[in-house]
Amino acid sequence: MCLITFAYNAHPDYKFILAGNRDEFYSRPTAVAHWWHDHQHIFGGRDLQAQGTWMAISKGGKFAAVTNYRDIRNIRSDANSRGDLPVNFLLGDEQPESYAKSVQMAGKSYNGFNLLVMDDELVHASNYERGVNNLKPGIYGLSNALLDTPWPKVTRSKRAFSEFIQTDFSLDDLIVMMQDEGTAPDDQLPETGLDYTREKALSAMCIRTPDYGTCCTTAITIDYDGKVEFMEKSYPVGGRKDQMVTQSFKIDA
Questions:
Q1: 22 burial via Cβ count (<10 Å: 0-12, 13-18, 19+)
Q2: In terms of pTM, does the model score above 0.70?
């Protein structure tokens, strides 16, 4: 994922609400959200090149998502796949804080990342930050810098998200919200090592360039009784189909 806005224990009906965009090179092979045939308790999309994921949830209610930390000058070609980080949490037995700490210790093995892991607690970790963050109730935004870094698209998405979840919203509403293609003013662009044209294009919540951009949008709610509603919209870019995937299930006790 490259832009995630979420609420944790900050809504009267839902423990967790999320809206997120996955940005990727269109040529990278991807499977849309589904129950995985080799790990049938996991639901989410899958990167078919490295077999990892950017976001997934288990029948037991474990959730994990990862975004890249954008540091163009320090990308290593021999780094481990960041898509393994959510998968290893969902397959393992560690609690979020313990897992996040172990991932941070191995952080040099990966290019820059942000990781969200949730079970009975929600934790954020990055290999560009010391220590892990046990998140308190609230609304958060995450893109390709540290948690709640006020990049324009993070601020914009959090503002819209906060307004939507105060209404009788639907997952469709959150997906439409994330399709905002407006770019940031030049004087608000972050400096991440990209040229101006690329930096400008990537400042949008929903990115559209000839070879790279937002491939899908995901919206999730988990209520206090453990009911999960999951919706993913894929966009017709790079040979992908314009399609919607929905899934509803009750977390195993």
A1: buried
A2: yes
